[in-house]
Design goal:
Aspartate Aminotransferase, domain 2; 7-stranded mixed sheet; 3-stranded antiparallel sheet; binds pyridoxal-5'-phosphate
Length: 378
């Protein structure tokens, strides 16, 4: 499949200059059809297909696990990052203080605060870079958890998960990662990075729509009797409907307390299939290539980029410094150019359905802005 054929799978890419995956991308028709298929079957056959749907959930669990180099026993489906993070905070049961980058999205910090953990923040440096040495210096005798996004939502900084995993092993910290802003486009290997818990939401880079997410639980934490939640679906044999004692699944699936969100899981399955067909390294290279071009065009017009510039620290998110970004977002939307306002300005993000023309169209509109709007003083 070439990039034009891939783009054709995303009808929204024809209607819009869609540079807003960091908020939510459009779905491919393949993912949308898989979700739709579930609703059609439910409409036409009711619950008759239940057993088949369950088999598909397990097949998608296997594929999600292999996508992040995990065992399927370690993978649970959730409905959001916040949901997964709350479960993790519950599993860790007040084991000690949590350290987070200061630029973190609230889904990664509020669950800890709500469960009365002490959370400490590590300030980022220029362009949102979070230095491993700064993290190291912030670790105290009370720190037990390092919780971070893979990619920071408002700077686009991408952490070196292998380096952080090494640090966590050296300092005996639990390593918790929110991969929402990187899942599907940048490498994730939970074993190689020594990740203990990984969460992600399906509606961003994973291109699976709202209401589905994933949670990885490292084998050393797979102890369902210590999980903070349970429901009928957590039971080893749910159909036995035993209500007076716990006999739980011995896998992360015990955290799925009720019936599955079939439509969301099927859409995620289709999105993973597309990523696998294109190839992970090809996708990563494409994001870099588009971002190289975006940066080059922005710099040629003297716009300030507030995100990291080098490939090792960059992601699919670029922040362009703007004084009144929310207003500019509205103006661009009138021209069907979709971006968002975050951090120091305009957040522009590129995914596999984007092309170089999208970037040209954005730049052409940015050039029309009154000079007071932009911070193009470089
Ligand atoms: C890093 C990160 N994690 C998670 C989310 C979404 O959280 P949730 O799935 O809880 O809605 C966002 C949304 O912008 C995000 O940027």
């Amino acid at each position: 499949m070439n990039w034009s054929e891939i783009r054709a799978l995303f009808p929204a890419a024809e209607q819009y200059t869609y540079l807003n995956t960091a908020a939510a991308p459009p779905l491919s028709i393949l993912a949308a059809r898989e979700g739709q298929r579930y609703y059609d079957e439910m409409a036409e056959h009711g619950d008759v297909a239940w057993d088949g749907w369950l088999c598909q959930v397990e097949e998608i669990r296997e594929r999600l696990a292999s996508f992040i180099n995990a065992d399927a026993r370690s993978v649970a489906f959730t409905y959001s990052t916040s949901h997964g993070m709350n479960l993790i905070a519950g599993i860790l049961d007040h084991c000690g203080d949590v350290l987070c980058p200061a630029d973190e999205f609230p889904s990664c910090t509020l669950p800890w605060l709500q469960q009365r953990y002490r959370v400490h923040f590590v300030r980022s440096r220029d362009r949102g870079v979070v230095d491993v040495d700064d993290i190291q210096r912030s670790i105290t005798n009370e720190t037990r958890v390092l919780g971070t996004s893979y990619v920071q939502f408002a700077t686009g900084f991408r952490h070196d998960l292998v380096a952080l995993g090494r640090l966590c092993r050296e300092r005996n910290l639990v390593f918790v990662v929110d991969a929402t802003q990187g899942m599907g486009v940048f490498p994730i290997d939970v074993v190689n990075s020594g990740i203990d818990f990984l969460v992600f939401s399906g509606y961003k880079w994973a291109q699976a729509g709202y209401g589905v997410g994933g949670l990885y639980v490292a084998p050393r934490f797979l102890n369902p009797t210590a999980f903070p939640v349970a429901g009928w679906w957590s039971a080893r044999d749910p159909e036995a409907v035993v209500n007076d004692r716990l006999d739980l699944k011995e896998t992360a699936a015990a955290l799925e307390v009720g019936c599955p969100h079939f439509a969301g899981i099927f859409a995620l399955g289709a999105a993973l299939t597309l990523f696998e067909e294109i190839g992970k390294s090809r996708i990563e290279e494409r994001i870099h290539e588009l971002t190289d071009y975006l940066h080059q065009r922005l710099q040629a017009d003297r716009f300030n980029i507030a995100s990291p510039l080098n490939r090792g620290q960059r992601s699919g998110i670029t922040i362009v410094e703007m004084r009144n970004a929310p207003e500019i977002v509205k103006r661009l939307a009138e021209k069907k150019i979709i971006v968002s306002a975050r951090g120091k300005g305009l957040r522009v993000s590129v995914h596999i359905f984007n092309n170089f023309d999208d970037i040209d169209r954005l730049i052409a509109e940015l050039r029309e802005l009154p000079s007071t709007a932009s911070a193009n003083t470089a």
